[in-house]
Amino acid sequence: MTSRDDRIPSSFRAVCQHVVLDTGRHAGPDAINDIRVFIQTSFAAIATSNYSLSPTWPGESVIGQLTDRAAGLFVWADTVVRFVEQGIPISA
Q1: Closest Cα partner for 32 from 79, 74, 80?
Q2: How far, in Å, are 4, 14, 23, 44, 76 from residue 73 at the CA level?
Q3: Exposure winner among 28, 59, 63, 90, fewest CB in 10 A?
Q4: pLDDT tens column, 19-28
Q5: What is the distance of C-alpha 44 from the center of its chain?
Q6: CB-count burial class (<10 Å; 0-12, 13-18, 19+) for 70
Q7: CB-based burial of residue 67 (10 Å sphere; 0-12 exposed, 13-18 middle, 19+ buried)?
Q8: d(CA 8, CA 92)
Q9: pTM for the whole structure
Q10: pLDDT digits (tens, 9 = 90+) for 60-85
């Protein structure tokens, strides 16, 4: 998968299928909801297994903000979850 095809040989491009991934304000409601569910589920697991927090942590407002900022990009949401999973940084 690539967003640019300038370095891909034309013989390879000829057999590839072009798929549009709508993001930002063009992201569909299914993609947005999938990201919201992923963030909610992942954060609930982090909250209950690592910190004894409420499974609704960090709250709907933050979940909504993170969902909006993901802009339809699952990789963005996954990166945020992985970052939070690392825990609070400890300075040396």
Answers
A1: 74
A2: 17, 27, 6, 20, 5
A3: 90
A4: 777 888 888 8
A5: 15
A6: buried
A7: buried
A8: 45
A9: 0.75
A10: 999 999 999 999 999 999 999 999 99
